[in-house]
């Protein structure tokens, strides 16, 4: 839905909250949406990034994941309220455009596109790293190139194929984590394997305490933990292609608490109870390290395959999301018109193709700086991804105020505790951004943010000069 269509909706030409036809095929069913929602919360941030977080904070990383997980739930319920008001493929970019103004919609669309391009580079980089677990002779850049081209081909077939691939990617991740938890419980309670004599829940506090690096060490991991949850909002982008969005999406969003509790908190508690936190190192998957410590090298290989699929899953989701976001921008006159074109299968192939071309820059990064590529791009992804969360929360606050005044229909899926939960989540994100400024490794993203903002500001002024009438129509939706 474009900003002009929002005007028509509010003028009464369409029923409130009813989305018009966007041209996409509603090919994502309940089974696929549920697994996309689950898989969106399980990626490289957990399988690879958690190693660095554990080394920085020790067992208290469990508390960091729990707190951030609560904030993520507030964000997702805010998104859910907006989705039930108007489920569209543009999602938070559309909501930013309607409730915060056309410029915010423009910034959000292009920033979320950048987020997925950078995340695609991050995930392909991680996947190429995992391949070297089996064969170090394979150049990292070569693996990255093969993966990028293969996933692009999949995204050119149909949205059903994308959904099915994500279903099985997510199934692999879920099965592996549950299996890891069960094996870990067996090691702790029955004492089998090489780690059986030392494995105990007491490792959570006996080796330097629960906060071995102090509260400050835990706080410094928050941006890493936030990165682990990036992409959980992807379920909102699927709204335009879900078969029954008003039934399927609330179910997916309501699974967030148990997903976080089981796949993050539960898995980390078991891992840190099997192996002391001092054994984990940055750049090494804690899951792989745990299996090696247990003395199951075959298990480590299996987990490495799982984290490989997790990275490819996230990169696949990135290609899916970028094409939809570019098309939404183009439909609103905020991007090149050729991005509006759909293939015979209802796919935004132009937007996806251009995005993949940008992702191929990641292959060059892998070639030029193979050992540092992951760290270079992860901070860029974090700050751009958090912008989407900020817009979701701010849009929901604005929508709720209008709905309470009777200017808009009430959502069928209200965020509990709002506006207080949304305000708390916004404050928390602000604190994390401040902590990123303190961390010298993450600070680079804050240096890049003003440059990106300047580029977007210049781009928006050019668009406004070219088509002031369209911008004015978008501005009307804010009032």
From TrEMBL:
Segments of this protein annotated with the region Disordered: 1-24
Record bears the keyword Transmembrane: yes
Key words of the record: Amino-acid transport, Cell membrane, Membrane, Transmembrane, Transmembrane helix, Transport
Coiled coil: none
GO annotation, biological process: amino acid transport; transmembrane transport
GO CC terms: plasma membrane
Family annotation (PROSITE patterns): AMINO_ACID_PERMEASE_1
Alphabetized Pfam families for the sequence: AA_permease
Cellular compartment(s): Cell membrane
Membrane topology: Multi-pass membrane protein
Domain Amino acid permease/ SLC12A residues, every copy: 33-468
Segments traversing the membrane: 35-54, 60-79, 99-121, 141-162, 174-195, 215-239, 260-280, 300-320, 347-367, 373-394, 415-438, 444-463
Family in the record: Belongs to the amino acid-polyamine-organocation (APC) superfamily. Amino acid transporter (AAT) (TC 2.A.3.1) family.
Protein name per Swiss-Prot or TrEMBL: Alanine glycine permease
């Amino acid at each position: 839905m474009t900003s002009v269509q929002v005007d028509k909706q509010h003028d009464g030409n369409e029923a409130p909250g009813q989305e018009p036809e966007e041209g996409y095929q509603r090919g994502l069913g309940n089974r696929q949406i549920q697994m996309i929602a689950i898989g969106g919360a399980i990626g490289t941030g957990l399988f690879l990034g958690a190693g660095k977080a554990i080394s920085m904070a020790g067992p208290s990383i469990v508390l960091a994941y729990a707190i951030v997980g609560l904030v993520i739930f507030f964000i997702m319920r805010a998104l859910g309220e907006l989705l039930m008001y108007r489920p569209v493929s543009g999602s938070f970019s559309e909501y930013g455009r309607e409730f915060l103004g056309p410029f915010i919609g423009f910034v959000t669309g292009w920033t979320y596109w950048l987020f997925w391009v950078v995340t695609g580079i991050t995930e392909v980089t991680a996947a190429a790293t995992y391949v070297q677990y089996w064969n170090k002779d394979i150049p990292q850049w070569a693996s990255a190139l093969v993966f990028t081209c293969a996933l692009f081909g999949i995204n050119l077939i149909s949205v059903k194929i994308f959904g099915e691939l994500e279903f099985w990617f997510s199934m692999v991740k879920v099965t592996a984590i549950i299996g890891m938890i069960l094996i870990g419980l067996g090691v702790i309670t029955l004492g089998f394997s090489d780690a059986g004599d030392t494995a105990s829940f007491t490792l959570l506090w006996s080796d330097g305490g629960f906060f071995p690096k102090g509260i400050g060490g835990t706080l410094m991991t928050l941006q890493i933990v936030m990165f682990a949850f990036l992409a959980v909002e992807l379920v909102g982008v699927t709204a335009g292609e879900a078969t029954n969005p008003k039934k399927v999406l609330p179910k997916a969003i309501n699974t967030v608490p148990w997903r976080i509790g089981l796949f993050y908190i539960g898995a980390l508690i078991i891992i840190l109870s099997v192996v002391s936190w001092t054994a984990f190192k940055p750049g090494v998957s804690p899951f792989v390290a745990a299996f090696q410590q247990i003395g199951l090298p075959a298990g480590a290989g299996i987990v490495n395959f799982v984290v490989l699929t997790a990275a490819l899953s996230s990169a696949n989701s990135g290609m899916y999301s970028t094409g939809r976001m570019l098309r939404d921008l183009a439909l609103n006159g905020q991007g090149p018109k050729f991005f509006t074109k759909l293939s015979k299968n209802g796919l935004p192939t132009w937007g996806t193709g251009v995005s993949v071309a940008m992702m191929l820059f990641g292959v060059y990064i892998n070639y030029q700086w193979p050992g540092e590529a992951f760290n270079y791009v992860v901070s860029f992804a974090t700050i751009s991804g958090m912008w989407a969360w900020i817009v979701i929360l701010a849009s929901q606050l604005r929508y709720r105020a209008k709905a309470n005044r009777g200017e808009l229909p009430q959502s069928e899926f209200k965020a509990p505790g709002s506006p207080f939960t949304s305000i708390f989540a916004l404050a928390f994100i602000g604190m994390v951004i401040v902590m990123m400024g303190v961390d010298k490794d993450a600070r680079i993203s804050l240096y890049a943010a003003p440059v990106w903002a300047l580029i977007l500001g210049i781009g928006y002024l050019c668009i406004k000069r070219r088509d002031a009438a369209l911008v004015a129509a978008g501005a009307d939706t804010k009032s």
